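User: quick one, fold this
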Amino acid sequence: MHSSSLLLKSCFLVANLLVLMTLTGDKELTRCPYSWTQVGSRCFAYNQTPMSWDSAKRHCWGLGANLASVHTSWEHQRIIQLFGNTPVWIGGSKGPKLTSRNGFLA
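Assistant:
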């Protein structure tokens, strides 16, 4: 997280793995920090601390991040390649309003 162009951070919770995700505002990332995996303009890192969705959300907030959302089918397919059939928790809410963005509920 040494990039000076870092504008937004998000987090994934994948089963018992916490996956951190960063996104640069200009969609251009020179390189990911050590031990992170790059997917497009995003970087993923793993923390094997088991936690609930709510705990993961708070953990992400503590890092200045949010639980992630997947915005394109390409991102979705790449994440499947990385994690296989592992169940994935992502950001969302229990609110009554659902909207669709690129075919994915957000």
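User: anything notable?
Assistant: The longest strand covers residues 6-14.
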